[in-house]
Amino acid sequence: MGILEQFSFLHEVSRWDWALYRKWFSYVRCEDRFGSRVANIISITTGKREASFSERPVCAVRALYMNLKSVLFCLALSLGLLAQAQAPSLFQLVKPQALILVEPSPAGGDLVDVSMTDAQYPSDLLSKQIMTLCRSLASGPNGLTVYHSSVALPGGQATFLKARFGAFGLIDLDTGHIRMQEIVRAFAGAPPPYTLSGLSVTFDAARPVPSTLRRFDSDAVRLEGQYDPPPAEGLEYRVQLVSQKPEAIVIPDHFEPATTKPSDRATGQSQVASWALIATAVAASLALATLVYLRLLHKSAGPGKRR
């Protein structure tokens, strides 16, 4: 699986576990009605209740099948619960106030397009933030232009404050290194009411490699990335600024397997919770399978006693 698609299986399980739950219980009801109806037909056509002796092996096979199906159902349900227990996606939680698009320039470097959703955002503040970004990259903004743009929408005209400029060193497509720290720091700390808490940063035509940063959480910032396949290929990041202090925002420019284990306790607690959930699901499946088996045996043995 790809670097940005490694959790897709659990997501798919969580989508169909409830449908499987409903189908399973409707199947149990249909099986009960079908079994009793067959027994009644046999007794009516033969005139003897002894004909119900054939129900016992049928019920045993059916019970075995239901045991297996109940185990599979409970395991699928537990996987769905594990997937739903994951932290919600920042793409659903964070509403971006600044949209940043980075495109490769044919002449080398990057072309950066910034759109502010607030039309009243000060143009001089945006220019200052862009200058801060370029200083951190040691690359002055080439051809910086700040302007207002109007877009026709179904509800009327929408006006955005935009900026466009050229820079170097924002992304290395070969190594997957991305200078997200410099971008986020530049837009942090704006005075109210223009303080930004959410950013959308898109790297057009970029493709993830194993070292590409997918997700990062800290006390100051959270970010999550996703890969958009062709034709609109690129890497899109949603960023949540928890702190407005630029010096507190530290983001690695690539993914690196941890050599130390500073969060062993949190990881251990998460693993214990996951195993506890799976154990509970397995125990529930065994209990449910036993109840179904006893119920079917009782139904198969009952008619034979009433002669």
Commentary on this structure:
This protein has 307 residues and is α+β, with helices and mostly antiparallel strands. 45% of the residues lie in helices and 22% in strands. The protein has an 8-stranded mixed sheet with strand order 3-4-2-1-7-10-9-8. The chain has a two-stranded antiparallel sheet with strand order 5-6. α1 packs antiparallel against α2 and α4 packs antiparallel against α5. The longest helix has 42 residues.
How would you summarize the topology of this molecule?
Elements lengths: L7 H39 L8 H30 L5 H4 L4 E7 L5 E7 L6 H15 L4 E12 L2 E12 L3 E2 L4 E2 L1 H8 L10 E7 L10 E3 L3 E8 L5 E8 L22 H42 L2
Helix pairs in contact: 1-2, 2-6, 4-5
Can you give keywords for this protein?
45% helix; 307 residues; two-stranded antiparallel sheet; 8-stranded mixed beta sheet; alpha+beta
